[in-house]
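Lab manual, section 2.4: Encoding a predicted structure.

Procedure: take the sequence of the chain (133 residues), apply the prediction step described in section 2.3, and record the output as structure tokens. A sample record is shown.
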Amino acid sequence: QIQLVESGGGLVQAGGALRLSCAYSGSPFTNYAMGWFRQSPGKAREFVAAISWSGISTYYAESIKGRFTISRDNTKNTLYLQMNSLKPEDTAVYYCAADGPHAIVVVTTLMQMAAGIENIKHWGKGTLVTVSS
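Recorded output:
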């Protein structure tokens, strides 16, 4: 059974930084796309960033491009989201997600993950990020 557990959320001032972690277990994850989504109060859950198993392929939402970096350490079974230059509008619950298995994970696969949130079967419980102005 796949388990995803997020950590690292908290309260930070605008302009600050946080690093989120997602510990994953229960599957080899070799052919899974993994990513981060977020949900603000009263809004739908939205895509933030995704990454392939190797880490070679990444894909980002335009709203966070240049400020956030997704990475993974497969030796530690952990997915990361480094968030810099945080803005109040980044305030949300951040969720880790796993999508697969796929025959191969390339950028197109990550784009499909971003666009097909309703098809994603594996989610963590989320971690709250609050950015104060």
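Check your result against the sample. The longest helix spans residues 107-115.
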